[in-house]
Design goal:
InterPro entries: 4pyrrol_Mease, 4pyrrol_Methylase_sf, 4pyrrole_Mease_sub1, 4pyrrole_Mease_sub2, CobF
Strand content: 15-25%
CATH superfamily of the largest domain: Tetrapyrrole methylase, N-terminal domain
CATH class of the largest domain: Alpha Beta
Number of domains: 2
Helix content: 25-40%
CATH topology of the largest domain: Cobalt-precorrin-4 Transmethylase, domain 1
Protein name: Precorrin-6A synthase [deacetylating]
Number of helices: 7
EC number: 2.1.1.152
Organism: Rhodomicrobium vannielii (strain ATCC 17100 / DSM 162 / LMG 4299 / NCIMB 10020 / ATH 3.1.1)
Strand order of the largest sheet: 3-2-4-1-5
Number of strands: 10
Shape: globular
Largest sheet: 5 strands, parallel
Keywords: Cobalamin biosynthesis, Methyltransferase, S-adenosyl-L-methionine, Transferase
Order of helices and strands: EHEHEHEHEHEHEEEHE
Structural class: alpha/beta
């Protein structure tokens, strides 16, 4: 039976690959490489560099998977479902055409496959349709771990929870959350609209783990403008941006803990 490996390759630094991930790379016959256009060509090149660096006997094949753009309408969930349906159809066709009955295919997933990536959801859709394959998931070091490591901070404070959310939900989630809030995929700089920014600390990072990495930390009221400027300049330079940040109120309960 065909087998699919979903391999987490880290947040942009090849050194983030685990031994398990490297061994999985060397088991694959076919790599399905997403192509999101010229804007995100760097992401495709990184996957190719990973293969060149870690695969001991390069006998694999690469199959490019064109990824359509997601529609931008007010009905976000409907947009995502339609987008996933198109990608799912592409995967089903490529599994049949490019992967032999006893071969192993692989997806190289940026960061960790279980955190803000839809590859596993798409494979579940195919399995539900009766497409026959086995699959295995290899975890990776994601942007959240890289963000905390680069800023030299723990994600949580003592006895406080951590919430992972998106920019579109930040206005609802952050004011009522008692601990740290990690924001992924913020396309609208939602941190600029947080009330009482002088009471909030932010740890922000873009292109984490790469040579283009940018880090800023401090009181939101003091660094908000700098982050907004750096973010705009980086997006203009590279054509895309991938950033993550953590926010929490200054003076949490753990700061009084002995």
């Amino acid at each position: 039976m065909r087998k699919i490996l979903v391999i987490g390759i880290g947040a942009g630094n090849p050194d983030y690959l685990t031994v398990q991930a490297i061994e999985a790379l060397n088991r694959a016959d076919v790599f399905f490489i997403p192509d999101k256009g010229t804007e995100k060509a760097a992401l495709r090149l990184f996957r190719e560099e990973v293969c060149a660096r870690f695969i001991r006997e390069p006998r694999f094949r690469e199959v490019v998977v064109p990824i359509p753009r997601r529609a931008e309408t007010p009905d976000y969930r409907a947009n995502v479902d339609e987008w996933h349906a198109a990608i799912e159809a592409s995967y089903e066709r490529l599994f049949a055409e490019a992967l032999g009955p006893d071969e192993t295919g692989a997806f190289l997933v940026w960061g960790d496959p279980a955190v803000y990536d839809s590859t596993l959801r798409l494979l579940d859709r195919l399995l539900a349709k009766g497409v026959a394959f086995e699959h295995e998931v290899i975890p990776g070091i994601g942007a959240i771990q890289a963000l905390a490591a680069q800023h030299k901070i723990p994600l949580n404070r003592i006895a406080e929870p951590v919430l992972i959310t998106t920019g579109r939900r930040l206005g609802e989630d952050f004011p009522r959350h008692p601990g740290s809030v990690v924001v992924m995929l913020d396309g609208t700089v939602s941190f600029t609209r947080v009330p009482e920014p002088e009471t909030v600390e932010i740890y922000w990072g873009a292109y984490l783990g790469t040579k283009d990495e940018i880090l800023v930390a401090g009181r939101l009221s003091e660094v908000c403008g700098e982050i907004e400027r750096l973010r705009a300049e980086a997006r203009e330079k590279h054509g895309w941006i991938m950033d993550t940040y953590l926010m929490r109120r200054v003076g949490g309960a753990s700061e009084q803990a002995e």
